[in-house]
Amino acid sequence: MRYLPPWDSLSSQSLRLSQISYLEEPDASEAIAAAEVVAALKGRPCDALSEFPEVLVWIEEHTDWVNVKLIRDAASAVERVRTASELRDLWSQSEEFPAWAAQLDDLLSRLQA
Predict the structure, then answer these.
(1) pLDDT per residue as tens, the chain (113 positions)
(2) How many structural domains compose the chain?
(3) What is the largest CA-CA distance in the chain?
């Protein structure tokens, strides 16, 4: 799997988010993954990131690339997934929905810290 820098993903995702009202599952999942990388760039990674050593290496090499716009775009993407996405709809049908929502809340708090 080829890792894409988060700013490429978030920039294109931000443009798409501004043009559509409902985010499909693949785009929503990509937005969450990119936002997790941004949180890690800020020094606030999630525990699950340890399962992706190639991403951790990339993050260590690029911590100086994080900026206010990238953080704002990441938080906006997470909010969009949380409120209007196929991924949200799929999780809402699961007993695990509260845990999923809590993970998004945690991601937002790590982005905003």
Answers:
(1) 444 555 555 555 555 565 667 889 998 998 899 899 999 999 999 999 999 999 899 899 888 888 998 899 899 889 999 999 999 999 999 999 999 999 999 999 999 98
(2) 1
(3) 40
Examine residue 19 and state whether it is found in any structural domain, yes or no: yes
Residue pair 25/87 in contact (Cβ under 8 Å)? The answer is: yes
Of 8, 55, 51, 52, nearest to 30 (Cα)? 8
> Would residue 1 count as lying in a domain?
no
Q: What contacts 17, CB < 8 A, 6 or more positions away? A: 23, 31, 76, 77, 80
| Domain boundaries, position 99 | 6-112
**Residue 81 covered by a domain:** yes
99 in any annotated domain: yes
